[in-house]
Design goal:
- With 117 residues, the chain is mainly α.
- It has one domain: DNA Binding (I), subunit A, CATH 1.10.30.
- The protein has a two-stranded antiparallel sheet.
- The structure holds zinc ion (ZN).
- The site of zinc ion (ZN) has 8 residues, from helix 2 and helix 3.
Length: 117
């Protein structure tokens, strides 16, 4: 359990444990955000609730994804301050920040691809 969501998450729930195992396989142990935005395979141990449990998020496969420590910590710190999302990555080539996709759509696509195999 990560210290960041210990206060608000129930990581002992059987549904969470079951789905976390699936999500680790689905996301192949890599951070989904770093992979999609940076094309970098960053090892990820944290199975994050996209919508935090404190905000009504469930343990469903549509709300869970693997994040690396950096992305997870950034998101959790912002949530703890009442914010949402991530501090954007800067594209050093263009000088612009990289736009975040609709992550729930990305997660849904990962589920479709995974369960279609
Ligand atoms: Zn990441």
């Amino acid at each position: 359990m990560s210290k960041w969501d210990a206060a608000t998450s129930d990581h002992s729930s059987p549904e969470y444990k079951r789905n976390r195992a699936i999500v680790r396989n689905r996301d192949e142990g890599f951070c989904v955000r770093c992979r999609v935005l940076l094309s970098i395979l960053t090892p990820a141990k944290d199975c994050d609730h996209y919508t935090a449990q404190a905000h009504g998020g469930t343990h469903s496969l549509d709300n869970l994804w693997m994040l690396c420590k950096r992305c997870h910590t950034d998101k959790t710190v912002r949530e703890s301050k009442g914010g949402a999302g991530f501090t954007p990555f800067l594209d050093y080539t263009s000088g612009y920040y990289i736009k975040e996709p609709d992550w729930l759509e990305v997660i849904a696509e990962r589920n479709s691809a995974y369960f279609a195999r």
